[in-house]
Design goal:
Blueprint lengths: L4 H14 L6 H11 L5 H21 L11 H12 L10 H11 L8 H5 L3 H11 L1 H11 L5 E5 L6 H10 L5 E2 L6 E4 L9 H4 L3 E3 L2 H10 L6 E4 L6 H9 L5 E6 L2 H5 L1 H8 L4 E5 L15 E7 L14 H4 L4 H17 L2 E11 L8 H10 L3 E4 L1 H7 L10 E3 L1 H4 L4 E8 L2
Parallel strand pairs: 5-6, 5-8, 6-7, 8-9
Antiparallel strand pairs: 1-3, 1-4, 2-3, 9-12, 10-12, 11-12
Helix pairs in contact: 1-3, 1-4, 3-4, 4-5, 7-8, 11-12
Length: 418
C-alpha cells in the first residue's frame, strides 16, 4: 500500500498545532479531522500514527535533522511515518528525503543516551532513576514509550467474561484474558468499538487492566455507601457499581461538568441505577459535608501528572513541566484531606494516581498518615490477597508496563480506625 503524498503534508500541518502543547494531542487531531472531512480513514490512521511517533521519539528525531538546525515539521512528519510504515510506502518523497530516511534507519539507537532512547525528558528520567535505580528506570521509561494494547472490562451485570470474549471472537476480534484483573480482556490490535453490539449493549467498557485492579482494591460490596471522589468520565464508577451488584448507593463526584456529562450515556448502557452523580464546585463543596463520616469506601483517583499513561498520551511528558509538580501535589493533599472526612470508622479510603513519581504517590501517603493518626495503612499484599488479584506487592500498589503490561498506577489503602 502506498500512502498518498497528502498524508505527509497533513501530518506536518497537524504537528504544527500539536507541538504548541496548548491542548491535548488527541483533541488537536480530532479537530483537524473534523475540519478536513475528505481525509479517508486509512489516511487518518497514518497521520495519527506519525503524530504519535513524533511525540514518543521527539528527542531522537531532533538529532536526525538533515541540516544542523532542528527538523522542520515536514521532516518530523516523515520521520514519524518512517517509524510507522515502510519508507517505500510513503508517497511524495523527494530522492534526497528518501536517502536521508534510509540513513536514519541505520542509526543504532541503543548507543544513545538513555533519555533519548526512551524519549523521556531529562527531569522525569532523573526522578525515575532516583526512585528506582538505573536499570528499572530505563525499563519503565522505555515501556512507557511503546504503544499500549486495548483493554476492556466486562460488565458482569450483562455477561460473563467468557461470553464477551466469544462475542468478540465472532466478530473476528481476537482477545486474551488479562492475567491480573478477573474481568478484563486485552485486544492487541487497534479497533473501533463504538459500532460493536457488545459495546452498544454495555457488555464491555474500555478500561486499562491497571485501572480495573484499582476498582477491585476498593472492595465495594453489596448495599454499601461508596464514593468515587474524583469520578472524571466514570470508568471506575461503572466498575464499582458492577462490584456492588447495582445495590447500595454509589456517589460520583466531579468538578468538571463536561467530564461528568460523559458518564450519562455510559451509565445508560451499563444498566446501573445505584449511581448518584454530583457536579461539585471544589473538594470542599458544602454538599459533601452532608455525607461526612457516612461512607464505607471512598476512592480518590486524584488528579495527577498522568505520566503513567504515556503509552496512550505521549504528549503529557511535554505538556507537564517540573514546575507544575509543586502545585499538583498541594492539590492532591487537599483532595485527600477532604475525601478522608467522608469515611466512617472502620471504612476504607483508597488513594490512587496514574503517576510514576513518588512525589505524587508515596510522599502524599506518608505526609497524610503523619497528620492523621486515626488512619492506618493496610498492606497492599493483604488487599490483593482478599481480592484474589495475583500481583506481588508490599505496602503499596505500583503497576507499570515494564512489569505488568498495564499503565503506570499507584494506590494505597488506608483504614479509618476511629
Amino acid at each position: 500500500m502506498k500512502l498518498p503524498a497528502l498524508v505527509a503534508i497533513h501530518a506536518a500541518k497537524v504537528l504544527d498545532g500539536v507541538l504548541n502543547f496548548t491542548a491535548a494531542a488527541d483533541g488537536v487531531l480530532s479537530r483537524y479531522f473534523r475540519e478536513n472531512r475528505k481525509i479517508g480513514s486509512t489516511e487518518r490512521h497514518a497521520i495519527s500514527e506519525a503524530v504519535y511517533a513524533v511525540l514518543r521519539n521527539r528527542l531522537f528525531y531532533n538529532h536526525c535533522a538533515p541540516k544542523e538546525n532542528e527538523p522542520t515539521m515536514r521532516e518530523l512528519a516523515l520521520l514519524g511515518l518512517a517509524d510507522s510504515f515502510e519508507i517505500s510506502a510513503i508517497g511524495g518523497l523527494a530522492e534526497a528525503e528518501q536517502v536521508w530516511l534510509e540513513k536514519v534507519k541505520l542509526i543504532d539507537r541503543t548507543q544513545l543516551a538513555p533519555e533519548i532512547q526512551t524519549g523521556m525528558p531529562q527531569w522525569i528520567y532523573e526522578k525515575l532513576v532516583d526512585s528506582l535505580g538505573e536499570e528499572e528506570a530505563f525499563d519503565l521509561a522505555h515501556s512507557l514509550n511503546m504503544p499500549a494494547p486495548l483493554d476492556v472490562r466486562v460488565n458482569t451485570l450483562k455477561a460473563k467474561r467468557e461470553t464477551a470474549k466469544a462475542e468478540l471472537d465472532a466478530q473476528s476480534i481476537s482477545s486474551e484474558m488479562t492475567p491480573y484483573a478477573p474481568l478484563g480482556l486485552r485486544v492487541e490490535r487497534k479497533i473501533s468499538l463504538q459500532n460493536l453490539s457488545v459495546y452498544k449493549e454495555g457488555i464491555i467498557e474500555v478500561q486499562d487492566e491497571g485501572s480495573q485492579i484499582l476498582a477491585h482494591i476498593v472492595g465495594a460490596r453489596r448495599g454499601e455507601m461508596v464514593a468515587d471522589f474524583c469520578a472524571g468520565a466514570g470508568g471506575k464508577t461503572l466498575a464499582l457499581g458492577a462490584h456492588m451488584r447495582n445495590t447500595g448507593r454509589l456517589y460520583a463526584f466531579e468538578v468538571s461538568e463536561k467530564r461528568l456529562a460523559h458518564l450519562g450515556p455510559r451509565l445508560k448502557r451499563s444498566g446501573l441505577s445505584n449511581v448518584h452523580t454530583l457536579n461539585v464546585a471544589h473538594e470542599r463543596d458544602a454538599r459533601l459535608g452532608l455525607l461526612s463520616g457516612k461512607m464505607d469506601r471512598v476512592l480518590v483517583d486524584a488528579p495527577c501528572s498522568g505520566l503513567g499513561t504515556l503509552r496512550r498520551n505521549p504528549d503529557i511528558k511535554w505538556r507537564f513541566a517540573e514546575s507544575d509538580l509543586v502545585e499538583m501535589t498541594q492539590r492532591q493533599k487537599v483532595i485527600l484531606e477532604s475525601a478522608a472526612r467522608l469515611v466512617k470508622p472502620g471504612g476504607r479510603l483508597v488513594y490512587a494516581t496514574c503517576s510514576v513519581l513518588k512525589e505524587e504517590n508515596e510522599d502524599i501517603i506518608h505526609g497524610f498518615l503523619l497528620k492523621h493518626p486515626n488512619f492506618s495503612l493496610r498492606p497492599m499484599r493483604e488487599i490483593l490477597a482478599e481480592q484474589k488479584i495475583p500481583v506481588e506487592m508490599e505496602d503499596f500498589l505500583n503497576l507499570g508496563p515494564h512489569r505488568h503490561r498495564t499503565d503506570g498506577f499507584f494506590a494505597a489503602v488506608l483504614q479509618r480506625n476511629s
